[in-house]
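FYI - complex with zinc ion, inputs then prediction.
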Amino acid sequence: MPELPEVETIKRELKPKIINKKILACITLRDDVIAYPKPKAFCRAILNERVIDVTRKAKYLFLELTNEKKIIFHFRLSGTLSLRKLRTKPERFTRVIIKINGYQLFFNEPRVLGRLYLLQNKRRLPILKGLYNLGLEPIVDEFDLNYVRNNIKGRKAKIKALLLDQSICAGVGNIYSDEALFLAGIRPLRRAKRITIKETAKLVRSLKDVIKKGIDNYGTSVSDYHRTDGKDGNFQKFLYVYGKEDEPCRICGTKIILAKLGNRSTRYCPKCQK
Ligand SMILES: [Zn+2]
């Protein structure tokens, strides 16, 4: 569930606190969360390295370490990070603890789907193919009408499915795609090839707006996501459709509908969205 705004929030909160600090210990409470290399090798390799940067790409977070090592966090549906003082007890769903000079970084993951990877010397990992096949993030200038048009025109797929496609809209997930489609007045189940140029332009603007507003509000806390200090984000206060099924639309009062989209779901207002 953490999407671009949530991972960006985690990045901004961690960076000033852990930069230039040394990794003192790594403890795995669930070995399967470490996807590469083996948990013991992972922990041994990061020990005594310093954090030289904290960066983000789409929904991935990176701790860049000395000696060209890089820890990659892929949060999937319910992963989060919390930063606590030393000697704080692990939380209910803490799967990995990384002690960083004065702090403990808890990787919490109720559903145990999120994963950690360690990359060394810029080598590529075949299991991370999603990372090497990312499209543009809506917040960059190059993500414009032309870019989106070229990616959706003539396609039979439903527009919502294309917004969730990371090779088109990097960092976008269920929350921000539902909200952007609402703001653009487009039903999520419409076929992409039926979306007009004018609607596409509106969608591009809406995507940029919701993602930016999500970042400005420290992300959306509706289920598992919390900020690194355990507090909630704020963007849930501004949602129109995500998680609002059966509630009246804030604009027109019509009941928000929950619809299936493959194995995902989507919400929309049948009156405001055409
Ligand atoms: Zn409505």
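The longest helix spans residues 197-216. The chain has a mean pLDDT of 96.
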